[in-house]
Amino acid sequence: MDSINLGNYWDKGVSYAEYKNIIEIQANEGVISKNEEIKKYAEYTRLNLSRIHRNDKTLVLKNEVLSGLQKITRKKNILVISEGWCGDAAQIVPVVNKIAESSEKLEMRIFFRDEDESLINQYLTNGGKAIPIVLFIEPDTFQEIAHWGPRPKPCTPFLKKYKSDPDNYTHDDFAKDIQGFYNKDKGRTISEELLEILLK
């Protein structure tokens, strides 16, 4: 990480409210585009926006997580690398936001992956630019404390299954199982995994 200054990306990051406003604009502009690729991504973004709004309304952090957040003694910045079209981000970023809102020691900003890929290139997953990636940063020095992502640990078997046998376990199967996990888990595993890092 010596080659990259996280402070620069923090400065360029946006708040959660700004993030939602930006991806809403992207969705609306993309839907009327004549470029089919842009149109397709806009539809993903629109779907994910509805997931984000639903998660904002329904996500409730467990008491154990809320109690754990009160044990944080030092301030930390949380920088999330994300994009509106990403289905995982629609499930994970609202959880990160709830965590940041629940502790006065935490501040969160979001950096759009495709704005400058130099950042995501430091956090490749099996060689790919998978998102979201959640970075925990010292607010004074902008040194990385830890990072997490792009998915909670229970989702790893789905990806392994898809990578090893995509003919019989298609990308649609993979997406369906991942979505099923998120719907059932309701942010519990994500919040617990993030809290574990915050309390280290």
Key features?
200 residues; alpha+beta; four-stranded mixed β-sheet; 9 helices; 12% strand; globular
The sequence of SSEs as H and E is HHHHEHEHEEHHH
Structural class: alpha+beta
Supply the number of helical segments: 9
Strand segment tally: 4
Helix percentage: 40-55%
Tell me the overall shape: globular
What is the overall pLDDT average?
95
Low-confidence stretches: none
Distance between termini? Answer: 20 Å
The description of the largest β-sheet is: 4 strands, mixed
- Looking across the biggest beta sheet, what order are the strands in? 2-1-3-4
Q: What is the rounded Rg?
A: 17 Å
Strand content: 5-15%
Task: Give your account of this protein's structure.
The protein is α+β, with helices and mostly antiparallel strands and 200 residues long. Helices cover 54% and strands 12% of the residues. It contains nine helices and four strands; from the N terminus they run ααααβαβαββααα. The chain has helices at 6-12, 16-31, 36-58, 63-69, 87-101, 117-120, 156-164, 171-185, 188-198, and strands at residues 76-82, 106-112, 133-137, 144-148. It has a four-stranded mixed sheet, sandwiched between helices. The longest helix has 23 residues, at 36-58. The radius of gyration is 17 Å and the shape is globular. The relative contact order is 0.16. The model has no long low-confidence stretch (mean pLDDT 95).
